[in-house]
């Protein structure tokens, strides 16, 4: 209801319990998934939000995710100062990539997506239609 008709709801039951979520902690070596089938999900942002692209694999009897994130370079320090979000640390650690300028550079993101998916058998990409012209 929230995602499709913008109707916020309160759920009495948790969808994924914390202990189940924590059993999923681990790292996937992207090289180990080379040549494997995968499906992508893309959520574009514009100015002050994060653009996200996630690859989903079902290999070795488990689901594995490879996430990628981008934020405009000029907004990184602003987010750190105003919102106390650790983007600078995440960029330095390689979890988030900055795009040049003060808005997300879609050509930059597209080139990154083409680069990271080149070694996988990408079946399709689903995306949020907002701003996905």
UniProtKB/TrEMBL annotation:
InterPro entries, alphabetized: TerL_nuclease, Terminase_largesu-like
* Taxonomic superkingdom: Bacteria
Any single GO molecular-function term of the entry would be: endonuclease activity
Cross-referenced PANTHER family, in alphabetical order? PROTEIN YMFN (PTHR41287:SF1), PTHR41287
Q: Name one Pfam family in it.
A: TerL_nuclease
Domain called Terminase large subunit-like endonuclease: residue spans: 2-132
Name of the protein in its database record: Phage Terminase
Annotated organism of origin:
Alistipes timonensis JC136
């Amino acid at each position: 209801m929230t995602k499709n008709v913008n109707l916020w709801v309160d759920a009495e039951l948790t969808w994924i319990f914390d202990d189940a979520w924590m059993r999923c902690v681990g790292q996937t070596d992207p090289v180990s998934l080379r040549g494997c089938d995968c499906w992508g999900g893309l959520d574009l942002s514009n100015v002050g939000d994060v653009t996200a692209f996630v690859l989903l694999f079902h290999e070795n009897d488990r689901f594995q995710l490879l996430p990628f994130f981008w934020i405009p370079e000029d907004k990184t320090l602003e987010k750190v100062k105003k919102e106390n979000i650790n983007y600078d640390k995440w960029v330095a650690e390689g979890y988030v990539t900055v795009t040049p300028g003060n808005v997300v550079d879609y050509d930059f993101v597209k080139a990154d997506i083409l680069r990271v998916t080149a070694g996988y058998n990408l079946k399709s990409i689903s995306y949020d239609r907002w701003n996905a012209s």
